[in-house]
């Protein structure tokens, strides 16, 4: 009787013999049949070409593939709820791993799936680092190129949606405007550049400017906007002005540095503990189960923890009259508990000189020695950047983000604060030794609480951000004409500030819209501060017609022409 075992053995032997026969036949054809050899060569080249499409040394080809892949995934709607995001994330990672295992011909599909997973992961920087360690170099290169191309596409449409229409202004490239007129057959003679024109070669910009989209009467407010980041001038850090919104504090007595330093730190203050205690970085790759756990952890840390913190009752401590202060350093004072808490959430938790982080005092000392406010603004900026994106994500989860009033507001909201900043003009600066030291200390100061900061804030990015502050920051004036101490050698700062000297400044701020206003020694608008805070308003100094370009003065217009030209050339590299 023939058993199943006998049949199995016979089948195996038959298969082996057939396999050996095919190998012999293949080898014979390869050595004697010229056409067969050519076919093998063509097939091998096709496979190699598919792999080379991804790993090609030509950046143009990789960019083209990345754009095609972006167009492909653009049709897919991303999930909204945390549960849906988690399921989507795990499915995309699993599909990406499967495609990687299929070989180079499937690398493009793998990149699509990994890219989609990245779009919903709570901590993209961390996931990029995981991809770099666990995916084939060709796939990682494609994912990163897709990210870069997405940023570029967003930048191309940026000025179509920003500023929102309710601001009554539009940012336009004057060069493109001239080109459009030429295409219509108009030969318009170019006017010579005025003394205040920003045509210096060291200013990295297209020729963009801000234009009014409606007629405005003299004295009318064109728009208002909040500051991106602000800081008090050293001479105003005397307890009379809020360290967050810059509002003057009624009945506050001037405080000396010695007095602030001598006050004991309140050990029972209401500072929040660090949310990153006990975290540690794991080396090597991570499997699917670990990624799932990390997705849950990252989501809980960035959303649930923030929601709980927002609901916690907070103690309020008034020091004198309407003055509130940091319960640890007693140096930062505020006009309200809201300002105190907002400042702590965004940046003071890193910068408090009496915090558990010893680097904070070293950073403060170095800033004071440098007589520059740019480093403190940059430190605040990154704290604010993280805080805003976390709150934005929290609003999305709670369903409140796209309670926007219009589609244009939703479009503007898709841009991060960093992406807004990338669209500003800036001065090209050569990093100094102090800049290098500041950057290193900034990483030590904030990297434990802001994961991935050291990798993101390179020397180039730090210098570029400093150049943006130097070109675009405005002086903030107190509208109540409060007494501001005179500048001394100790409180002098070397930062470049747009200041028309209409009043004594109390601080400096950076604004997203107002940064695009150009200079004129005969301005038609002026930055004012009607709420006695860093919130700015653009006021018309003369009647403005729809389509008119808006100009402010970067310097004191009462100065003589030669002095103004010298200031503009030295500070903004005007020619």
List its traits.
575 residues; mainly alpha; three-stranded antiparallel β-sheet; disordered N terminus
Give a short synopsis of this structure:
This protein is mainly alpha-helical and 575 residues long. 49% of the residues lie in helices and 9% in strands.
In terms of DSSP E residues, the strand content is 5-15%
Number of helices: 20
Which parts are unreliable, with pLDDT below 50 for 5 consecutive residues or more? 1-26, 177-205, 258-284, 307-322, 400-411
Rg, Cα atoms, Å? 30 Å
Could you say which overall geometry the principal axes of the C-alpha atoms support? globular
SS-based structural class?
Answer: mainly alpha
Q: How is the main sheet built?
A: 3 strands, antiparallel
* Distance between the ends: 104 Å
Strand order in the largest sheet: 4-14-13
Provide the residue-averaged pLDDT: 78
How many beta-strand segments? Answer: 15
- Residue share in helices? 40-55%
């Amino acid at each position: 009787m023939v058993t199943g075992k006998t049949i199995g053995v016979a089948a195996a032997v038959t298969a082996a013999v057939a396999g050996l026969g095919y190998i012999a036949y293949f080898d014979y054809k390869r050595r004697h049949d010229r056409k067969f050899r050519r076919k093998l060569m063509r097939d091998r080249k096709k496979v190699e070409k598919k792999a080379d499409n991804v790993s090609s040394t030509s950046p143009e080809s990789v960019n083209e593939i990345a754009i095609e892949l972006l167009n492909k995934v653009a049709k897919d709607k991303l999930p909204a709820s945390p549960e849906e995001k988690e399921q989507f994330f795990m499915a995309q990672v699993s599909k990406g791993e499967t495609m990687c295992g299929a070989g180079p011909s499937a690398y493009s599909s793998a990149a699509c799936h990994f890219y989609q997973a990245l779009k919903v992961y709570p901590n993209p920087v961390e996931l990029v680092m995981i991809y770099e360690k666990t995916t084939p170099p060709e796939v990682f290169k494609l994912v990163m190129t897709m990210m870069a191309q997405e940023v570029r596409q967003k930048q191309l449409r940026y000025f179509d949606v920003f500023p929102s229409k309710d601001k009554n202004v539009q940012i336009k490239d004057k060069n493109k405007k001239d080109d459009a007129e030429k295409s219509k057959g108009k030969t318009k003679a170019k006017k010579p550049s005025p003394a205040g024109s920003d045509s210096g070669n060291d200013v990295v910009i297209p020729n963009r400017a801000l234009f009014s989209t409606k007629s405005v009467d003299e004295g009318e407010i064109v728009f208002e906007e909040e500051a991106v980041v602000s800081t008090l001038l050293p001479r105003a850090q005397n307890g009379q002005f809020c360290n967050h919104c810059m509002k003057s504090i009624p009945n506050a007595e001037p405080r000396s540095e010695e007095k602030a330093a001598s006050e004991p730190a309140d050990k029972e203050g209401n500072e929040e503990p660090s949310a990153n205690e006990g975290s540690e970085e794991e080396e090597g790759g991570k499997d699917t189960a670990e990624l799932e756990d990390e997705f849950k952890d990252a989501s809980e840390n960035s959303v649930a923890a923030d929601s709980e913190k927002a609901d916690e009752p907070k103690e309020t401590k008034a020091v004198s009259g309407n003055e509130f202060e940091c319960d640890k350093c007693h140096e930062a004072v505020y006009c309200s508990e809201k300002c105190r808490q907002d400042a702590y959430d965004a940046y003071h938790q890193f910068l408090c000189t009496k915090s558990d982080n010893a680097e904070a005092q070293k950073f403060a000392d170095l800033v004071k020695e440098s007589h520059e406010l740019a480093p403190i603004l940059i430190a605040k900026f990154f704290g604010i950047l993280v805080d805003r994106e976390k709150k934005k994500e929290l609003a999305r989860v709670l369903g409140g983000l796209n309670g926007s009033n219009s589609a244009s507001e939703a479009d503007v909201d898709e841009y991060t604060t960093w992406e807004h900043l990338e669209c500003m003009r800036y001065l090209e600066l050569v990093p100094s030794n102090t800049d290098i030291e500041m950057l290193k200390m900034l990483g030590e100061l904030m990297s434990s609480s802001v994961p991935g900061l050291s990798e993101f804030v390179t020397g180039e990015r730090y210098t570029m951000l400093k150049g943006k502050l130097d070109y675009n920051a405005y002086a903030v004036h107190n509208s109540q004409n409060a007494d501001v101490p005179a500048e001394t050698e100790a409180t002098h700062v070397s930062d470049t500030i747009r200041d028309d000297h209409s009043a004594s400044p109390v601080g400096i701020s950076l604004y997203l819209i107002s940064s695009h206003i150009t200079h004129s020694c005969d301005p038609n608008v002026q930055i004012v501060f009607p709420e006695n805070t860093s919130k700015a308003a653009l006021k018309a100094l003369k009647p403005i017609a729809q389509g008119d370009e808006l100009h402010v003065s970067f310097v004191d217009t009462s100065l003589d022409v030669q002095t103004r030209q010298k200031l503009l050339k030295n500070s903004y590299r005007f020619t």
